[in-house]
Design goal:
The complex is a heterodimer of chains A (348) and B (565).
Chain A: E1 2-11, E2 14-24, E3 29-34, H1 40-48, E4 55-60, E5 63-64, E6 75-78, H2 90-100, H3 105-118, H4 134-146, E7 152-156, H5 164-181, E8 185-189, H6 192-198, E9 201-206, E10 209-214, H7 216-221, H8 226-232, E11 236-244, E12 248-252, E13 255-259, E14 271-276, E15 282-284, E16 293-303, E17 308-314, E18 317-323, E19 332-336, E20 343-346
Parallel strand pairs in A: 3-8, 3-9, 6-7, 7-8
Antiparallel strand pairs in A: 1-2, 1-4, 4-5, 9-10, 11-12, 11-14, 12-13, 14-20, 15-19, 16-17, 16-19, 17-18
Chain B: H1 2-37, H2 45-85, H3 91-103, H4 106-117, H5 122-131, H6 144-169, H7 172-180, H8 185-213, H9 217-222, H10 230-239, H11 244-268, H12 291-318, E1 321-323, E2 335-337, H13 340-344, H14 358-388, H15 392-402, H16 409-420, H17 427-431, H18 434-455, H19 459-467, H20 472-501, H21 504-509, H22 517-526, H23 530-557
Antiparallel strand pairs in B: 1-2
Helix pairs in contact in B: 1-11, 1-14, 1-16, 2-6, 2-8, 2-12, 3-6, 3-12, 3-23, 4-12, 4-23, 6-8, 7-8, 8-11, 10-11, 12-23, 14-18, 14-20, 18-20, 19-20, 20-23, 22-23
The chains are: A alpha+beta (348), B mainly alpha (565).
Chain lengths: 348, 565
Amino acid sequence: MLEIRDITKSYEGKPLLEGISFSVREGETVCLLGESGSGKSTLLRVIAGLEEAESGTLWWDGEEISRMPAHKRGFGLMFQDYALFPHRSVQENVGFGLRMLGLPRAEVRARSRSALAMVRMEGFADRTVTELSGGEQQRVALARALAPDPRLLMLDEPLGALDHALRKQLIGELRRILHDSRKTAIYVTHDREEAFGLADTLMLLGKGRIAQAGTAAELFERPVNAWAAGFLGLGNLIPGVVAGLAPLRVNTALGTFRVDACFQEWEIGREVRLLLRPRDAQVLSGQSERENQFPARVQDSLFMGENYQSELRAGEYPLLIQTEMPLEVGAEMKVAFPSDKLSCLEVE
Amino acid sequence: MDAKRGTLWWKILLWLLPAAFLLVFFYQPLAAILRLAFSKPLAGPEQSAALGLTANTFAFTLWQALLSVLLTLLVGLPAAYLFSHFEFAGRKLLRLTALLPFILPTVVTAVCFNTLLGPRGWLNLGLMALFKLTEPPVRMLDSLPAILLAHVFYNSSVIIRIVGGAWSRLDRKLTQAAQILGANSWRVFWEVTLPLLLPAIGGASLLVFLFDFTSFGVVLMLGGPRFATLEVEIYTQALYLFNLPLAGLLSLVQLVFTLLVAWLHSRLSQPRYGKSALSAERANLRRPKTRAEKAFTLVVVLVLAALTLLPLLSLVSRSVVSLEAERGARGEAQTGFTLRYYRELFHNPSGSLFYVPPAAAVRNSLLYAGATMLIANLLGLLTSYALRCSGRLSRWLEPLFILPLGASAVTLGLGFVIVFRRPPWDALSFSLLIPFAHALVALPLVVRTLLPALRGIPDSLRQAAGTLGAGWARVFREVDLPLLLRPLLVSMVFAFTISLGEFGASSFLSTGSNPTIPVAIYRYISQPGALNYGQALAMSTILLLVCAFGSLIIEKARLPGEELF
């Protein structure tokens, strides 16, 4: 369907996108996940035709569309702050794209009604958009983008401006709507919860490139490097140096770690990061000894509902771990991470 | 409890001084005009002639104002688009010179066009030299086109600033949303951009209409005897034909109509779509890229430069060039650089027809302008503070302060003549009233500059200062004053330049021996003789330079993001 080839763009002289390539299959929801300033919105605007890339091409079903003006691409875009037309009613907003298609008035009316029904806003058709709440505006914007039945739907941080509770609820709804309409969609966000909740395929955008692409589970289990793991918030990253191979051993300030789960080749002396996931931590009692153990001191212990999240200090590193029981603040203890749960990651 | 009563007293005191001022210097003259207008029975042949004249004058005033607004939009809208979208060489300079005409005295504007298009202007001199003519071939003055041209010159900056400001702050995402939904650029303009800009365009047009409708100096000096707006007719009837009742009737018509327009304008300028159509920051400007964009930029820049720069340059250059051929026998025009006209300003040679040394006019004007600046800003500050807090008191009294907006300078002058030109006021002390009339003329613009700035200071700042131990006087000094400094500078420059250039009221109030600069310029330019012409040009150039300096201060000192008007 959509194919993006080698898109480059700079902003105020600095490279923003450095050769982005990926493709989107029919009916698939692709999430572009990246920090603010990573160029993900710009990439979306390039695909929409609102901005021009410095190089690279866009293809749709084998036809090049890089130079096609935005209004002819037949894509839908939902803006971050919705960009609803303040001088038109809810229904007129939703019907705008249908009118541009040159549809007869009755059909415009019927189809904008059904688009409003899809987002459960039927009762709001004659309201002015300025009197809607943030969540209502969000729904109207979605209905407006969906109404002309675009061949590609793009969403630019559509939940960014909403509060947490509403966001959670709307992620579910968006999922239902994207699934029911079987739309091909690109969803841009910096929030991994949204990305994990919505994406068929996740693209991690960092430093102008796609750092990693895959399903949410793949990214979660096998982050491509320390930056990806950090951005996804997977756990503690401890710097170290490869000291032995087969089995892999890594020297760190907290001692030497043995790593069994290993997905790539390493060489001795290579600088790496160890990923210690909070859920894998084992707190040792008494004199018991395990591999990959090190001493730590409890700084804080928070009840999270299901379990406890404790903040420890191990040497110079802060360390987050999950435990079943609360830990006593100030207590000295040993913590271990099983060697088959550790990941060794490249620095970049 | 005590504190509360204390603030109420303060509020009343705030209102009292501006209210008293308006009562004495605005409502009293206004009442006198009304009395005069209705002093004669509305029947009889003399009255029906008066009504006919009033109707005709009104019709012409309306017609020329409408035409002027249309032409101004024709120039202003493309320029507004250019300034809000594109970066180009000379942008800043052009923006500044487009502002200059707005604060340029009407008299100077008229003289500018005289030096360009008049019988002794560059165009005619050039054509005469080129084709060896003995008579000036172009008779542009004393015609409707001359009036319209000056009005466009004057007001295109209003359109550029208001519409351009709205355009640059129009949320680009809205037009992009329309684009993505399948609208081509033409449809985007009709369906999104234009509807969202309409309030700004309407408001700016009404403002321009108001300025054109009450136009006095330009019509008097460029329209010649054939064309008279209500303002000019009031002036003629009162000062030359001594028909005060008819002048009163004309003033009444003028007042009612301008109030109507001012009311419409205030209704229109209320924000329609809240903030939703505006983006927080201005969109980035870009250089024109396509060939069409480049051509558009070039054409608009050329038109604007021709319209605003040419008349200004023409005045300055003509004021330092002497043409010996003008003396007597026509022949080869000998042109040469001279500062004679400027030197003549400061001593009065016997050859001059004039009984007042121009230097005296300069002195008078500077004194009046200084006094106006102080009076208008003191009153403006008090009025703004009074209008700032919205309460029942404000709601009752606010219309009283809005009304003077509708009064023209000539009406004001007429009212002053009726009320104050009698004992105990003698001719000399009568002209001392000029700063008061000027302060009334300047007050609306002063309040419009100060009030938004004042409303922009969040009350929490004052409260924070209060909880940190500052009394009200200290709060004013430490919070309000520093934040108001720049707007105050702007409003002071406004008041000063308005007073320097004010012509309508001054032409009623200044006495023969004590003219202001614009009155003196008008007298000089109405007289034959190269020296008189040259001296008018020299004085106009000086006023022009003062105003250019003023507009530079205004441009630099206005709050970022704040548009004028």
